[in-house]
Amino acid sequence: MNTDAATNTDGMGTELLSLDGVGKSYGTVLALQDVSLTLRAGEISCVLGDNGAGKSTLIKIISGLHRHDEGSYTVAGEEVRFDSPRQALERGIATVYQDLAVVPLMPVWRNFFLGSEQGTRRWGGLRLDAEGMRATTREALARMGIDLHDVDRPIGTLSGGQRQCVAIARAVHFGAKVLILDEPTAALGVKQSGVVLKYVTAARDAGLGVVLITHNPHHAYLVGDHFTLLRRGRMAGSHPRAEIGLEQLTTEMAGGSDLAELSHELARPPVPDSREERPQP
Amino acid sequence: MSSTDLLAQEGLGRDRPAAVRRLLARPELGSLIAAVAVFTVFAGAAEPFLRLSSLGTVLYAASTIGIMAVPVSLLMIGGEFDLSAGVLVTTAALTSSMVSYQFTAVTWVGVLVSLATTLAIGWFNGFMLGRTKLPSFIVTLGTFLMLTGANLGVTKAISGTVSTKSISDMEGFESCRRLFASEVTVGGLTIKATVWWWLGLLVVGSWVLLRTRFGNWIFAVGGDADAARAVGVPVARTKTLLYLGVGFGAWVLGQHLLFSFDTVQSGEGIGNELIYIVAAVIGGCLITGGYGSVVGSALGALIFGMASKGIIYAQWNPDWFKFFLGAMLLLAALLNAYVKRRAERGPR
Amino acid sequence: MSITRFRPSRRFWPVCAVLALAVTAAGCSSTGGRRAEEARAKAAAAGGSAVTTPRWKVAMVTHAGAGDAFWDTVRKGAEQAAAKDNITFLYSNDAQTQNQVQLVQAAIDQKVDGLLVTLAKGDAMADVLAKAKAAGIPVITINSGQEYSQKFGALTHIGQDESTAGRAAGTELSSRGRKNVLCVIHEQGNVGQEQRCSGAQSKAGGAFQVLYVNGVDMPDARAAISAKLQADPAIDTVLTLSGPMAATGLQAIQDAHRSVELDTFDLGGQVVAGLKSGSVGFAVDQQPYLQGYEGVDLLWLYRSNLDMLGGGKPVETGPQILTKDNADALAEYVARGTR
Questions:
Q1: Nearest-CA distance from B220 to chain A in Å?
Q2: Strand A29-40 with A209-214, pairing
C-alpha cells in the first residue's frame, strides 16, 4: 500500500475516476441530479457551490459514505457502488474532512498511522513499531515539505492548517490515488489557507488526483485545473481552466442572475415583513 | 516546493526542552506526586505504616480496587463509563458459586461459566452502546440496576436465601483458592494472589494501550470517535472489547471474593463502580476520554489503599476519609483538565 | 503494510459452548453441593395447616435493605407460622422510611387482618399506624422500635433490645477475661449497631475501641480490620455485629497473623463452623426466626382467641448466647435457613 510518491508521476494524465450523470435522493428530496465529473492523475478538480448546493452529497458518494441512485461511478475504468468508506479507501480514494481529520489529544505519529498501524516482525505484528512509525512520520511529513521534529506532541497543539497538512501527508503516504478535500480552507485565515493550498499542489505534484470542495472561488482558482459548479443539486457549469477567468468564476459561483437580483433587493429600503432580512454570506 | 518549517513561527525552541515538556504532559504525573505525598504523610504519622506486614495489607486493599481500575481506565480512555462494574464483581462471584453448588460440579466449572457470564454482560453493554447510540452512562446504569436486582432475585430463587451456600467442601475449591485467594509470605511481607493479578493486568493493559494497534484505537475512539471512524477504525468493536475487559476484571475479582470468603452476599459491590472511576480519574484519565494512563489508575488504587488503611494505622478519625477522597478527586480532575488544555492548545 | 484486524472466528462461540458442556458433564464434584443438601433434606417432612380458623391475611412490612440474610430468616419464621395458622402471608420491604410508609399504607388498603411492622425510624410511622388503628387492624411491631411500640397503639413488640444484647455480650466478654476489645461497626450511623457496641463497652470492663468499615465491600473491610490489628498489638478480641462480618473478621485475623478471639452478634454458616472449630468464642443471637414466627402466631392468637402473651409487655427474643456446646445442632438449622 505504501507507494513511493515519485513513481506515481509516471501515470500523469490517466483517468482516475469519473462520474456520469450521477444523482441521489433522500426519500423525496432530490439532493443531487445529473452530475458528471472526470478526474485525472496530477490534476486538481475544484467543486464549487454555495451551502446546500449538493457539495457534501457529492463528497459522500465519491468517498463511499452514501450510494448513488442514478448514473454511473467509475474508478480506474471499473464501475463501482461503494457500501462504506473502507471500500473507497481500498481503491485509493482518501477523504480529508475539515473537522474530522485528526484526534486532537493523540500524538502526531499516532494520528498519522491511525487505522493503518504498522507492527514489528516479532510478536506476530501485534506489537507496534513505535520507533519505525515515528521515523516514517517524520520522513513522510518532510517529503511533503513539513518539518516537524517532535512527532510526539499532541496533534491538537498544531494549528488548523497544519492539521490539514498532516492529514494530506497521511493520505499521500498511504498511497492514495485520489484525494478528496472537504472545504480545507473554510475555517482558516489567509496565511494558513496559503500553506494548505501549497500542500494540495504538493499532493498534485506527487501524481495524485485531487477533488477540492470549496465555496471560495479565489482559493479554487489559485490551484484548480478544472472547475465544476453546483447549484441546488445540479451542475451549473463545468469548465477547464483555459476557458474561464477568475472574475467569471466568481460571478457564476455567486449565482449570476441571482446575485443581480440580490443586489437589486439590497438596494431597496428594507421592507418590514421581508424574509430576506439578512443577505447570504 | 521549498521546505517550510511550519512550527518556526511558534518557536519550539523558546519553550522548555521537549523532554521536560513531555514529562509534564504525562497523565500519571499528578497521581505520582500525590502517591508520594500520601505515603510521606502516613509514614510520618503512623509508625506501623512502614512495617512490611502493613505494606502487605495496603497492597491487598489497593489490589482489590486496582484489578478493576485497569480495565475501567482503559474504558474511560476509550470514552465510556461502566456503572455496572461494581455489582458485576458480585455477579461473577454469585454465578460461580451457584453453578458449582447447584450442579454439584467441580468448582472450576462454576469459574468458567462465571467467566462466560461476565464476558457476555460486557458484550451486552458494548452491543447496546453501539446499537442504540445512547450514552454509556444510561446504558450501564440500566445494566447496574438490572444486575443489582438479578443478583438478589436469582440468588434467592436458587439458594432460598440471599447469600450463597458454602462450597468450601467441594472438589476443586482448594485449587481455585490457590489461583485466586492464596498468599505468599516472603520475609514478613504477605502478598495476596490479587496483587499478582493486579500487576499482571497492569502490565498487559499498559502494554496493550501504548504498544499495540488496539491501544492506538482506544485513544482514538475516546478522543474523537468520528475522526477514528473516518480513517477506518472499528469504533463499536473497539468499545465492545473494552467492555469485555471490564467483564474479565470483574471475573477475577469475583472469584477472589468467592474463594476467599466462601459464601457471597448478594447485596455486595454496590458503590464500588464509583471507586474504580475515582481511581482512574486520580490516575489521570479524562472524564471525556481520549487521554489517560493504566499505570496512573494503579497509582490511584494505591493512593486509595494507602489513605484508607493509613488512617487506621495512624489511629485517626475515619469519618473524614470520604471527604479526603472527594477533595483528592476534584484536585485530580482539575489537574487533568489543565493538562488537557495545555495538550490541545500547545505551549503558547 | 497490510491492515489486519482482530476478528473472533465464527467458530469461537460454539467451541466455547461445547467446551463448557463437556466440562460440566465431566466435572461433577463428589463432595458437597446441592446433592448433599438434597440428601439432608430427605429426612425433613412437610406439615400442613392444623387449625380451623378462616383464611386470614397478615402483612409484614420491614425496613430491610436488599439482600440481607437476616430478614430472610425472619421471613422464613413468619411463613412457617402462617402455614400452620392457615394465614396468607404478605411480605414487603424498603430501606427508605418514606417508601416503607407507603408499603404500610398499601397493606391497609388491602384490608389485611393483621400487620407486622418494623420501626427503624419510629416517628415517621406515627400517622400511618394511626390509620391502621382507625381501620381496626391489629398491629404488632417487630425487631426495632420498642420505645415507640406502645405509643403508636401496637398490641406488643417482639424483638431484642440492642442495648440489652450489647450488655449481655459485654458480660460474656468480661467473664471470658477479654481485656482489649475491638468492636467493628459495618454501617456507619446505624443506631442499633452503636447500641450494641456501647452496651458491650459498658459491661466489658477492659479497653474498648470501635472501628468503622464498609459492610458492602468485604475485601476492603477485611483489609481495614487487619490494618487495625497490625496497628494496635494490644487488641485481644474482635467483636463483629453480623454473621458475614464475623467471617470477614476471621479472615482479617489470619491476615494480621495475630491470635485474637473473635466474638459476634448474629449467626451464619461460618459463625457456626467457627463456634465448632473454636475460632469463634461466642455468638449473641436475637433469633430472627422467632421474631417472624411469633409475630404471625401472636396475631393469630389475638384474632382467634384475644390472647396476648405477657399482657402486651415487649416479648424479648434475645439475647441468646451461643457457644461451642450448641454448634452441632445449630449447623443443621443454619443450613436450612431457620437460624
A1: 6
A2: unpaired
Question: Residues of chain A whose C-beta is under 8 A from some C-beta in C?
Answer: 1-2, 115-116, 118, 125
B8-44 residue pLDDT tens: 444 343 445 667 766 776 788 888 988 999 999 999 9
What is the average pLDDT across A232-238? 84
- Name every chain B residue with its beta carbon within 8 A of the beta carbon of A100: 224, 226-227, 230
Euclidean distance between CA atoms B19 and B100, whole angstroms: 54
User: Is residue B329 within a helix (H) or strand (E), and if so which, with residue range?
Assistant: helix B321-345
8 Å CB contact between B228 and B220: yes
Beta bridge partners of A30: A25
Separation of alpha carbons B270 and B122, rounded Å? 17
Residues linked to residue A239 through DSSP beta bridges, in sequence order: A227
Between CA A94 and CA A116 the distance in angstroms is 13
Which among B163, B169, B234 is the nearest to C31, CB-wise?
Answer: B169
> Which element (helix H / strand E) includes B304?
helix B294-313
Residue B304: other Cβ atoms inside 10 A: 27
Amino acid at A261: E
The one-letter amino acid code at C103 reads L
Give the three-class secondary structure for C211: strand
pTM here is 0.79
Residues B137, B288: contact at Cβ < 8 Å? Answer: no
Is B51 near chain A, with CB under 8 Å? no
Distance CA B317, CA B311 (A): 7
Using CA atoms, how far apart are residues C127 and B93, in angstroms rounded to an integer?
43
The rounded distance, in Å, linking the Cα atoms of B234 and B244 is 16
- What SS3 class is residue A181? strand
Residue whose C-alpha is closest to residue C76's, from C84, C112, C192, C95 = C84
Arithmetic mean of pLDDT, B236-241: 94
Q: Is C92 left (phi over 0), alpha (psi -120 to 50) or beta?
A: beta
Residues of chain C short of pLDDT 70, as ranges, are 1-26, 40-50, 66-67
Q: Does residue B216 contact residue B141 with C-beta atoms inside 8 Å?
A: no
Instruction: Return all residues near A181 (Cβ < 8 A) that are at least 6 apart.
Output: A95, A96, A164, A168, A200, A210, A211, A212, A213
Percent of chain B with pLDDT strictly greater than 90: 55
pLDDT mean over A76-81: 87
What is the spatial distance between Cα B285 and Cα B31, in angstroms, rounded to a whole number? 10
Which is nearest to B31 in space by CA: B202, B326, B280? Answer: B280
Contact A231, A215 (CB under 8 A): no
Q: Integer distance in angstroms from the first to the last C-alpha of chain C?
A: 68
